[in-house]
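EI: anyone free to look at a 294-residue chain?
SC: sure, send it
EI:
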Amino acid sequence: MSRLLLGLLLTLPAWADEPPAADTKKPVPANPLVFGADASGGLGAKLDLDKVETLGALDWTDANGHGWTGTPFWGAKLHGTWSSQPQARNHGEAALNLGFFGQYETVSERTAHDLGLAFEFKGLTGTFDGNGTSGVNSGGVNSGAGASRNEYLYGPQLVYRLHATWLNDWMARYTRGLGVPPTLVAGFWRRGGRTETLALPENLRADQLYVQARFSLPIPLSDSKALLLSVLAQQARPIQGPDRSSTHYVNATLTYNHGGKVQPAASYQSGVKDGFKYDRQLLLGLLWDLTRWL
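SC: here you go
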């Protein structure tokens, strides 16, 4: 089993899909920095860099035959434009990652444990178009035409993920691989600069220490039909300010896979008005099927 967590760490904590393998290196343009005359007749420069590198790997086996793997890595996404014209919207964005990924695998290869630690920095500065940023920073910025931004986010993220062969097989067989293995994330984000438009993932805020748990549980109903329960639970606590009270958040979804067609059946989101939603017709059809199977 070699399901690695590097792709997850490089996009923390957006993790709905299975991350790519750690040894996948993104292609780098031959000339990430281009300099010359621009369309307006002045001088201009453009920078586009998206690179991920692993810094070697450490592999060893302990006395019990359990396998260990350790991989340090770094990643960088840089984008910037500059023009000599007086009214040019010069700007730059950066997303940088530095961390270490480890995996522990049992002798039987029935379970594997992923553990990763990453420090992430996101920043942007300059004047942006109304369409937002280039997408370097997840969530983008809908700043409005000619809006000036100068801000950054940074923080450490610790991730643990459990791979159980039986659970992965169930999700691949009954839910088309849509589930997420049991995952635990802890970390915090600090924000700085003059503006606050950089987006954080769902329900996260800056200057909060948070712990998130996410898992998916397939519930087989037949060879071609199954339910998938996916749960995200979070607890957060501010690390500064007069109010240090903790907050809780839960997001649960129930999807129905029947005949290869996946449909949302019900969902619940805490702290939101009308947070419980469901598809009445789909649930009635599901109940009817259950009565026939029983």
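EI: Residues 1-25, 138-144 have pLDDT under 50 and may be disordered.
SC: 👍
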